[in-house]
């Protein structure tokens, strides 16, 4: 009976979302209810992490394939904690930001429901459960992408659905092949393929490749990335969710699950699948950076940056050694906190000044110093300058490349860091060192509900760089179990 508590942080956000949709609260009461709901859910996740590690629940088992199964392990604790913490800050930020977007009740309903779905992905104990919640994630985030209802938003939403369901179809195809060989889809450290005959190596390779590409769609793997920049038409809190927490990180999380908990590093080495995927990942890293350089719209520049940075995480997964996996998982955290701050800062600028283009923000560092200093700190962290958190994850990724005997990977990371500096530092220069059209710029920050989350997450970013050991030790424990 105690194991039923595992579904509490998954089910509770759905109940909260339905309550917001049906109750029609006044604005202040709705905001309080939303904030209390996500904070309570964080408490549930922390409780389960500390008091029920290793907990398991078969919620519904029809047969070996259709088995809705939840399990708490170190990787699920890692991902669910990240999601739950950042959701609290995004909720507070959204209270103010969504005032000028409208349709707030609908937004908060889908927004909080998405939290429950993302935690369903985190606590999935087998591939079919993860797949089902992965599909639900697309359905829940689609109304958020098309929130404004404009023609551009509807077109972006259509593209998002096509790419997402296309990727999900590939995943399903790979799952069917895998199940025909193993009759098992349960997540087990080092994989479930130990006793599979070498004569099936081609089918195993095909299954892994199509599943990697399928899940890679949400992780913006080139050439399946086009939906991500288009989704920038969504409100900034949604962009933050798509690019920092829920969607793209769920894709990366799913890739860790299939690589190390279904196939296993040894089997993937035998199939030689990693070589093909590495080419796409390297292209993603470099192409995302080059495309970011040519974007004048600040949100779109950050969107293409996300494609590049996600490539770092995927590279860490596919190099199949402990240092690279540690680096990839650290970057999953570090990129999340850095990129959500950058989007929050961009949203604050848009909310306060209405400016969206880089050429329009000259001198805004004097008008919004707190916002732009947080943007600056986060930018330096994303570039990977020591002693920031971005440096810690990229250092481990570079070590992973050297351990693999391929010095080309550290070289690619250095080139990408240089390109990251080239597309972020001009924003800072424009904001602090150029004068705007107005000779006198009055100090006018965004409202406190927006500024406080920005400052808090920036502080987390700094702390993760100065004191990385607690997270580093935990991530290494996970990697030790897998390789």
From TrEMBL:
Subcellular location field: Cell membrane; Membrane
Membrane topology of this protein: Multi-pass membrane protein
Record-annotated membrane-spanning stretches: 6-25, 32-50, 75-95, 107-125, 160-181, 201-228, 240-263, 275-293, 370-387, 407-429, 450-467
Sequence ranges assigned to domain NADH:quinone oxidoreductase/Mrp antiporter transmembrane in this UniProt record: 124-419
Coiled coil region boundaries: none
Keyword Transcription regulation among UniProt keywords: no
Gene Ontology MF: a single term: oxidoreductase activity
Pfam families given in the database record: Proton_antipo_M, Proton_antipo_N
GO-annotated cellular components: plasma membrane
Keywords: Cell membrane, Membrane, Oxidoreductase, Transmembrane, Transmembrane helix
InterPro entries according to UniProt: ComplexI-like_HydComp, ND/Mrp_TM, Proton_antipo_N
Domain NADH-Ubiquinone oxidoreductase (complex I) chain 5 N-terminal span(s) in chain numbering: 66-108
PANTHER family with a match to the protein in the record: HYDROGENASE-4 COMPONENT F, NADH-UBIQUINONE_PLASTOQUINONE
Similarity annotation: Belongs to the CPA3 antiporters (TC 2.A.63) subunit A family.
Protein's name according to its UniProt entry: Na(+)/H(+) antiporter subunit A
Organism: Clostridium liquoris
Classification lineage: Bacteria, Bacillati, Bacillota, Clostridia, Eubacteriales
Gene it is expressed from: mrpA
């Amino acid at each position: 009976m105690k194991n039923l508590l595992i579904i509490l942080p998954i089910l509770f956000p759905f109940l909260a979302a339905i309550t917001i949709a049906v109750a029609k609260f006044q604005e202040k009461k709705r905001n309080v209810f939303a904030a209390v709901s996500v904070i309570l859910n964080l408490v549930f996740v922390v409780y389960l992490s500390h008091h029920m590690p290793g907990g398991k629940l078969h919620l519904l088992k029809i047969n070996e394939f259709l088995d809705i199964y939840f399990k708490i392990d170190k990787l699920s604790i890692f991902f669910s904690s990240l999601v739950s913490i950042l959701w609290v800050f995004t909720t507070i930020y959204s209270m103010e930001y969504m005032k000028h977007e409208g349709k707030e009740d609908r937004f908060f309903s889908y927004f909080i429901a998405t939290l429950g779905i993302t935690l369903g992905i985190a606590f999935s104990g087998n591939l079919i459960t993860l797949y089902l919640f992965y599909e639900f994630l697309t359905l829940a985030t689609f109304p958020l992408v098309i929130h404004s209802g404009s023609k551009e938003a509807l077109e972006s939403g259509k593209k998002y659905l096509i790419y997402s369901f296309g990727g999900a179809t590939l995943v399903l195809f790979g799952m069917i092949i895998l199940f025909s060989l193993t009759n098992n889809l349960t997540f087990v450290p080092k994989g479930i393929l130990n006793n599979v005959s070498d004569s099936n190596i081609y089918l195993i390779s095909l299954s892994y490749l199509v599943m990697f590409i399928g899940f890679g769609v949400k992780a913006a793997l080139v050439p399946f990335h086009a939906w991500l920049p288009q989704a920038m038409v969504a409100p900034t809190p949604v962009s933050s969710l798509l690019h920092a927490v829920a969607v793209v990180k769920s894709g990366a999380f799913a890739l860790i699950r299939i690589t190390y908990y279904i196939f296993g590093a040894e089997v993937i080495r035998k199939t030689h699948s990693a070589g093909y995927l590495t080419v796409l990942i390297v292209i993603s890293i470099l192409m995302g950076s080059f495309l970011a350089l040519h974007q004048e719209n600040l949100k779109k520049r950050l969107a293409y940056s996300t494609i590049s940075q996600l490539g770092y995480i995927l590279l860490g997964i596919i190099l199949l050694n402990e240092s690279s996996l540690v680096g990839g998982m650290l970057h999953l955290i570090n990129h999340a906190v850095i990129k959500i701050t950058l989007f929050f800062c961009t949203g604050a600028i848009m909310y306060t000044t209405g400016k969206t283009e880089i050429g329009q923000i000259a001198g805004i560092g004097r008008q919004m110093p707190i916002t732009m200093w947080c943007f600056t700190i986060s930018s330096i962290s994303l570039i990977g300058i020591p002693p920031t958190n971005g440096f810690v994850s990229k250092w481990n990724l570079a070590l992973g490349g050297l351990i693999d005997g391929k010095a080309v990977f550290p070289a690619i990371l250095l080139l990408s860091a240089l390109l990251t500096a080239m597309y972020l530092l001009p924003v800072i220069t424009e904001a602090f060192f150029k004068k705007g059209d107005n000779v006198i710029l009055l100090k006018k920050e965004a409202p406190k509900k927006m500024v406080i989350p920005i400052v808090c997450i920036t502080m987390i970013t700094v702390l993760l760089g100065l004191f990385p050991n607690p997270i580093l030790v935990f991530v290494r424990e996970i990697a030790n179990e897998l390789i």
